[in-house]
Specification:
Helix content is about 35%, strand content about 20%. Strand 19 and strand 20 form a beta hairpin. The chain is built from 24 helices and 24 strands. A 5-stranded mixed beta sheet has the order 2-11-10-3-9. Strands 14-13-12-16-17 form a 5-stranded antiparallel beta sheet. Among the domains are: about 5-75, Helix Hairpins (Orthogonal Bundle), CATH 1.10.287; about 120-335, D-amino Acid Aminotransferase, Chain A, domain 1 (2-Layer Sandwich); about 345-440, OB fold (Dihydrolipoamide Acetyltransferase, E2P); about 625-690, BRCT domain (Rossmann fold, 3-Layer(aba) Sandwich). Helix 1 (about 5-20) packs across helix 2 (about 25-40), helix 2 runs antiparallel to helix 3 and helix 17 (about 530-540) packs across helix 18. It is globular. The chain is α+β, with helices and mostly antiparallel strands.
């Protein structure tokens, strides 16, 4: 970006200003500071010390404080916000931010290349390959050389305005010389990340403050974008890679730069403008087989990078060919993401604990020798049930291979029997509850052992935790730790006690001031008016999820109407099969459960069904089901959108299903739906288009 003679001039200017501050010219000082920000934050090649930069920066503040009319929007002083972000306004992108199609192996890439070459009319295509950064997506708009707004990805159509927070990231310039390239306005895309070193350093600071460390760099970056105080964002030492130009408005009469004719050219343009683009990391490759070889070799060294990536992005380099191929409603046809295999590591099983859930299910949990895996430290992992342990031949003391499926959920891949020393022990499943010592039972055709004692402490606590959870009664400010604490000291012995909590005793506990108690009281009071389906779900009836709870609630007037229904009548409800019907019937024919429900009613909880589903709307009469991980919407929000437009959510795949909305890592529901011709299988982006019609 800067020629050698200009760099030399800036070095000389820095020396002059540091020794003779009285000679400082404001415009030159601003340019000098911007240059050194670029050297430090983009190139990672500082030419002056931090102390020297601070001295120059203080001179800038001194000059501007003496005359505020001298402050310009792109001044380095304008990065630091003086006020809190009280809200994040939603603003539309100039061009929708689409997702990328994913690939996981060579066959996927070959299939992508076949479609692309056929569509382009070429035998062999040239691709630009770059890292797929594992951070938080952003969109930036510059106009007349100045940064005018920054926003999150949001739903792809619109995102939240985070301009003040983005200004704290010093690798993102406040102004760029667009005019030199014939550009009046530009919208660019990138990823906010936290480097591994910055992440480690920030967690050390948190530890010194006795605060909980952040989970991983990705979460740290994403969480930073919506922090209320921009100054806190600045403390996290975030970085940003800018890798895509989505929109260009030329200066009238000006000639646009030819760098816009290829993707690799746009990366060079972004680099020349002062952004940290993957200019150095990109690779221009001809032919898909060479791309495959490069992806394979790059994956081996992924952990040597100073930042996390979860794959590579392959793009057709020629922009005219990109435009020719176009895009679907979900993804461009000219680009694809190659996702790396799940991260794996080896560790040792040091102990096994048996945990009891709210339905009495006993789950074996392996306590591991802590090991770093995909940006997090894994020290425990579920082994699901007794059959899982036997099938994988897992023993206490075994060396095991673990992985994070989808770089999220840790699981044991296998035990390494060849490394056994003879001291390993068979894992013996208990015959009695590890909490209350009641005899465990296992139903025929099930793999799970259960404690069926209604007095089991572990189950009671887990039931309370489930009852107050967000998707159930949504009692904010409770928290799992507080529930366990309240139970242990005897002020929260069961679910109804949520509504008779002794707040005088709570005030005596550490960490409970007036404000936190007021918030908890208000949340408890508000929960009494939750719709009936939330109460049914909150009861924790086995096999009854949120969708089934909605179905059941829609078929009754009062919750105790369920005491009068047979299993056969319950099976007549949408998506209620034999197993679910049996569970509901059993629950509502247990005296202790009925007594608890009556007690909750006496405490003022809503027990009556009120019709909250829209009877008309553009989705009226249509049945939906979601599977896989949604990237643009929360599952609960998407389901609410369906219901507010007259649609219904089903609990499983059947001929009654109209639309299956498929997210990432979809499983058996997708395969089952493919076998039923009447079901329309759509992407998340297709769903968003559908609800907006």
């Amino acid at each position: 970006m800067y020629p050698k003679d200009q760099i030399s001039a800036f070095q000389a200017l820095a020396k002059e200003y540091l020794t003779n501050p009285q000679t400082i010219a404001l415009d030159s000082l601003k340019k000098l500071l911007k240059f050194n920000e670029y050297q430090y934050y983009v190139l990672n090649e500082p030419l002056i010390s931090d102390y020297e930069y601070d001295q120059l920066y203080q001179q800038l503040l001194l000059i501007e404080s003496a005359n505020s009319s001298l402050i310009t929007p792109d001044s380095p002083s304008q990065r630091v916000g003086n006020s809190l972000n009280t809200s994040f306004v939603t603003i539309p992108h100039l061009v929708p931010m689409l997702s990328l199609e994913n690939s996981y192996n060579a066959d996927d890439l070959i299939d992508f290349d076949r479609k692309a070459t056929e569509g382009a009319g070429y035998e062999k295509l040239t691709y630009c390959v770059e890292p797929k950064f594992d951070g938080a997506s952003i969109s930036l708009v510059y106009e007349n050389d100045l940064l005018i707004r920054a926003c999150t990805r949001g739903d792809g159509v619109a995102g939240e305005d985070i301009t003040q927070n983005i200004k704290q990231i010093k690798s993102i310039p406040l102004s760029v010389p667009l005019g030199e390239y014939g550009i009046k306005q530009i919208e660019i895309r990138g990823e906010v990340i936290m480097s591994k070193d910055a992440f480690a350093a920030f967690n050390e600071k948190l530890k010194l403050k006795q605060q909980a460390p952040l989970a991983n760099p990705r979460n740290a970056a994403a969480g930073s974008l919506r922090m209320k105080d921009p100054r806190e964002v600045g403390e996290r030492n975030l970085d940003a890679f800018i890798y895509h130009i989505s929109y260009v408005l030329p200066i009238p009469g000006a000639k646009l730069t030819p760098l816009l004719q290829s993707h690799s050219g746009t990366l060079s343009l972004l680099w020349n403008l002062g952004f940290r683009s993957p200019q150095k990391e990109r690779k221009i490759i001809e032919g898909v087989h060479n791309v495959i070889d490069y992806c394979t070799s790059f994956e081996i060294g992924r952990d040597q990078l100073p930042y996390d990536i979860d794959g590579l992005v392959i793009k057709i380099d020629d922009v005219m060919l990109q435009e020719k191929l176009g895009m679907t409603s979900h993804h461009p046809r000219w680009a694809i993401a190659y996702k790396f295999k799940a991260r794996q590591a080896t560790t040792i099983i040091e102990n096994v604990e048996f945990q009891v859930g709210r339905t009495g299910a006993v789950t074996p949990v392996a306590k591991l020798q802590p090991v770093a895996l995909g940006g997090v430290t894994v020290s425990s992992i579920s082994m699901h049930n007794e059959e899982y342990i036997k099938e994988k031949d897992i023993r206490l003391g075994d060396t095991v291979i673990i992985e994070r499926a989808g770089d999220v959920i840790p699981q044991i891949v296998q035990s390494i029997s060849s490394l056994r020393k003879g001291t390993e022990q068979m894992i013996t499943f208990p015959t009695t509850c590890p909490v209350c010592n009641a005899t465990l039972e296992k139903e025929e055709a099930e793999a799970v052992w259960r404690c069926i004692s209604p007095l089991c402490k572990a189950q009671i606590v887990e039931r309370i935790i489930h009852f107050v959870s967000k998707d159930a009664m949504d009692i904010k400010s409770f928290g799992e730790a507080n529930i366990r604490k309240f139970y242990e000291i005897g002020i929260l012995p069961n679910v109804p006690a949520v509504y008779t909590l002794d707040f005088e005793k709570v005030t005596q506990l550490e960490g409970f001031g007036k404000k936190s108690i007021d918030n908890l009281q208000a949340a408890i009071a508000n929960s009494k008016n939750q719709p009936l389906y939330r109460l049914i779900y909150g009861l924790g009836i086995r096999f009854v999820g949120e969708t089934t709870a909605k179905t059941v609630a829609s078929q009754i007037q009062h919750i105790l109407d369920l005491t009068n229904l047979t299993e056969e009548q319950l099976q007549s409800f949408e998506d209620v099969g034999v197993k679910v019907a049996k569970s509901i019937y059993a629950y509502f024919h247990e005296e202790n459960n009925i007594a608890m429900i009556r007690q909750l009613e006496s405490l003022g909880l809503n027990m009556i069904q009120t019709n909250t589903t829209a009877v008309d709307g553009n989705l009226a009469g249509l049945n939906f089901l979601f599977t896989g991980t949604l990237t643009q919407l929360k599952r609960t929000d998407a389901e609410a959108m369906v219901e507010s437009r007259g649609g219904h959510i089903l609990g499983g795949v059947s001929s009654k299903l109209n639309y299956l909305v498929v997210g990432e890592d979809a499983g058996s529901k997708l395969e089952k739906a493919k076998k039923i011709a009447s079901i329309k299988i759509i992407s998340e982006a297709d769903f968003i288009d559908l609800i907006n019609k």
